[in-house]
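Example record for the data management plan.
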Amino acid sequence: MRTTTFRIFPGAGVLAVVLVAGCARPLEPGDPLPGLTQAEKVKFERGKAVFVRTFVAADGLGPLFNADACGECHEEPVAGGPGDEVEIHATALMADGTCDPLLDQGGPVVQQQVTDALHAALGITGEPVPARATGTGRRSTPDVLGFGLLDAVTDETILALADPDDRDGDGVSGRPNRFVDGRIGRFGRKAFVPTLREFNDGAFPLEQGITTPSAPQEESVAGKPIPAGVDPAPDPEIAVEDLELADFFVRTLAPPAPQPLKSTGLRGRRLFVAVGCATCHVIRLTTGPNPLQALHRRHVAAYTDLLLHDMGPDLADICLGQATPSEFRTEPLMGLRLSSSFLHDGRATSIEEAVRLHGGEAQRSRDRFNALGEKDRRAVLRFLQSL
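Corresponding structural encoding:
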């Protein structure tokens, strides 16, 4: 059953400092988590260098890719922040309700750029959308700040928030997505990827065309092998050590501390809970036991339950795993103020527009927000702009 964890955290103003105990200042975007040892701080900086490294064709970039560096997309205002790139994803919803990720056609991520060598060989400027796809979706670039804390939240915590049959009758029926092997997912807009390491490692072949020890073969072009000679770099094109460093950097990126609130923002925070937004955007999660002390049993003001919710037909696009086209993971709101576009596809140009586009399970909360007086609506927005 869903639990209202925000009720046991009445001193919500503490959220700005929970993760900065022992620090001289609030956390800024791009800061590492507090509590890292000196050796871990060195590892963080080495991982950042891998994250921002620009690959070229001679290194193995492509021949199909979306970006030449992790930091090309996750870039504003710091490495790990959001970006302005928008990707195309495609899958096929089968007649029996299962979802085909089109792995034999190159997978659900459609690479929109090609190297000069592939262009010369095939005359294409990007990967075609698989003909078998039944749906496509646009994906904006989120920030990854605080993702290590989300990874450290236990499966039991996520399952305790789920209410797939809406047994409490509040109109909200969040449920976990699951990976192909049954593990609970939490990363990606559809919460399909179970662990941060898989999410980070997968970005190299899927986004940059960089082969890894676990994915040592180049992707096909619409299901056909890439032409000989267009990618002569030896596989794998990145070493395990660099993957581990990049993962450590993302894992130990701190969420930026919320900005201080005055009376209007404080009222907005109370209204955020009152209209029901915190039912899905759960204010606080707590991590479980973790070998990394900076992640061990920590509170995080994540504003998510990491569950799938039906957002209505107007936002629907692709299936993925057990997620239907209209189901999306509750987006974490930590670091919200860093973004300039909102929702999974970036269609909303303001936080208010994003709220008004919520449908499905979020419709009741949206309608309550819309019914607020102008001053109260502005108060809620002021609160959200502080995150």
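Summary line stored alongside the record: The two ends are 28 Å apart (CA to CA).
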